[in-house]
Amino acid sequence: MKIATAEFIQNGAQPVTGANKIIEVKNVSKVYGTEVVALKDINLDFEAGQLTSLLGPSGCGKTTLLKIIAGLLPATQGDILVNGKKVTAPGPERAFVFQDFALLPWATVLDNAAFGLKMQGKPKAERDDIANHYVKEVGLDGFQKSYPHQLSGGMRQRVGLARALSVNADVLLMDEPFSAVDEQTRRKFQEDLIRLREVEKKTFIFVTHSIEEAVYVSDRIILLSPRPGRVSEIIDPDIPSDIGPDELRRNEVYLETVENIWHGIKKYVD
Amino acid sequence: MTLYGRKIPKMASLVVWLIIWEIVGQLDLLMLFPPFSSVLMAMGEVVTARSFNEALWITASSYALGMGLALVVGITMGILMGLFKPIDNMLNMWVNVFLSAPLSALVPIFMILFGLGTPTVVVTVFMFAVWIIVLDTRAGVQNISPSLMEMSHSFGANRFERAKIVLLAALPEILAGIRLGLVRGVKGVVIGQLLVSIIGVGALFALYQQNFLMSHFWALIVLLFTFALTMADLIGRLEKRIEYYAHVRS
C-alpha cells in the first residue's frame, strides 16, 4: 500500500489527535420503532476546521447521524457535544445544507439566503448585506432577485450554501448536497467547496455515498457499515494539497484510496 | 385553436352554441326553450326589476357570509388535519362523507334548525363549499416537503414563522380548493333559496316558473352562471400567478 500515512482504525476506536474537538458523538444509538437499529454505539470526534465525510452505502445511517448532530432527530441513546456542551436541538453554531435544497419557492435568492439571519432577528438592511456577500461568494452575483424556479439545480444548491454560510455557524452540516445536481455541475461544486473551505475556515461534516467525492474533498473519511450503522473505518487520505483538481483526479494516492475504500465497502453492497 | 391559419378567440365556441340555441328557440318546439334573443331581452327586464335587486342583495350577502365561514373553517380544519394525524383520523371520514353526500337532501333539516330565512341559506352555502376547501388544504399541507419544515426548524424559525411557511407552501392547493368551493357555493346559494323558496333568487325562480316566464327564468340562470364562472376565473388567475410554486416542490 502506497498510502503513506493513511490510518485504518478498527471499529469505533478514537483517532489519536491533538487538535480541538468541536463536535463529539458519544455512544450514540438510534432505533426506529422497536426493531430497526439505524445506528449503534457511534463514538466520533470532529475536529475544528476539518472537512469530514460520512461515507457508506445506503442504509448505513449516515444521514440519520448527521440529522442527530444537527438536532433535527433525537438520538435513542448517547449524547452530542458541541464545543463541550450537550445539544438536543438545532442551534446557531450548526447550519444545515439540504439534499433537496429546501428553498422557499416564494422568496428571492437574496431572501432565501437571508432566511437564517431573519429568524435570528437581524434587521433587514444588515441581513441583506450579509446575505448579499455570501450570494456573491457562492458565485450567484446578479441572481439576487431571481426566484428558485428560475435557477438550475446546481444554482439552487448554491443558494442553500449561501443561506448556511450567512448565519456564520462554526459547523456546516451537508447532507449529500451534490447528489441532486448533474455530474458536470457536481465537479465544479466540489472544486468550489475546497476553495470555500480555505476561505471560510469552518468545520464541515459532509454526507455522501460517492467514494470519489469523499476522497476528493475530505480531510478525513468516516466509513459507516450498514445494519446496524457502525463506524467501520476512519481514513485520513494523504493527498498532496498543492496540486490542482485535474491533476488530483489522476494522482496515485487518490486513486488508491478510492480503491481501498471500495474494497472495504464492497461486502456491504448487495 | 386556429382555423385556416387564423386564431379564433376562446369565446367563439360560445357564439356557436348561442346561435344553435336561437335556432332551436325560433322553431318554437318547446315552450320551455324561448329563443336566446328573447332571453336577452328578458335579461334587461330582470336586471332592472326592483325584485331582482332585492333578491340580488339577499343572495349576495348570504353567499358572502357562507363563503366567509367556509374559508375560515375550511382552511383552519384542513391545516389542522394536514399537520396532526389524530385530528385527521377523526375528521377525514366525515369530510369525505359530506363531500359526496347529496347535501340538497339536508336543506329541509337546516330549515327546521335555522328557520325559513337567510340563516338556512348561509348554512347551505357553507355546507356546499367547505368540504372541498378542507380536503384541498389538507392535501396541500401534506404535500409540503419535510425538508422545508426541517430547514425552518434548523435555522431557528419560531412557531409563527413556521405557520407562515406552512400556509405559503400549501397556498397553491388552498387556492384550488377555494376556486372549487366558490363554484359549489353558488350551487349552494341557489339550491338553498330554491328550497326555502321565499327569499332571494330562489323566490324569483319560483315566481318566473309559476308564471311561465321562461325567458326571465333563463335570463336569471345565465346571470348566475356568468357570476359563478367569473368568480372561478378570478381565482384561477390568482392561481396562475403563484403557479411557480409547483415547480420547486418535489
UniProtKB/TrEMBL annotation, chain A:
Q: Can you provide one Gene Ontology molecular function annotated for this UniProt record? A: ATP hydrolysis activity
- SMART domains attached here? AAA (SM00382)
| Residues in the signal sequence | none
Identify the SUPFAM superfamilies for this entry.
Answer: P-loop containing nucleoside triphosphate hydrolases
InterPro entries tied to this protein: AAA+_ATPase, ABC_transporter-like_ATP-bd, ABC_transporter-like_CS, ABC_transporter_ATP-bind, P-loop_NTPase
Keyword set for this entry?
Answer: ATP-binding, Nucleotide-binding, Transport
Q: Which CDD domains match?
A: ABC_NrtD_SsuB_transporters
Q: Indicate the segments forming the ABC transporter domain, all copies.
A: 23-251
Which Pfam family would be a valid example here?
Answer: ABC_tran
Report the domain of life of the source organism.
Answer: Bacteria
PANTHER family, per database record? ALIPHATIC SULFONATES IMPORT ATP-BINDING PROTEIN SSUB, TAURINE IMPORT ATP-BINDING PROTEIN-RELATED
Q: Which family does it belong to?
A: Belongs to the ABC transporter superfamily.
Give the protein's recorded name.
NitT/TauT family transport system ATP-binding protein
**Source organism (scientific name):** Pelagibacterium luteolum
TrEMBL record, chain B:
Write down the InterPro entries for this protein, in alphabetical order. Answer: MetI-like, MetI-like_sf
| Residue spans crossing the bilayer | 12-36, 56-81, 93-114, 120-141, 189-209, 215-235
Keywords, A to Z, come to: Cell membrane, Membrane, Transmembrane, Transmembrane helix, Transport
Tell me where in or outside the cell this protein is found.
Cell membrane
Q: How does it sit in the membrane?
A: Multi-pass membrane protein
The keyword Transmembrane belongs to this UniProt entry's keyword annotation: yes
**Domain named ABC transmembrane type-1: which ranges?**
56-233
Keyword check for Zinc-finger: no
**What processes in GO biological process is this protein linked to?**
transmembrane transport
- Identify one Gene Ontology CC term for this UniProt entry: plasma membrane
Q: Please give the PANTHER family that the UniProt record associates with this protein.
A: ABC TRANSPORTER PERMEASE PROTEIN MJ0413-RELATED, ALKANE SULFONATE ABC TRANSPORTER-RELATED, MEMBRANE SUBUNIT
What is this protein identified as? NitT/TauT family transport system permease protein
In its UniProt entry, the species of origin is given as Pelagibacterium luteolum
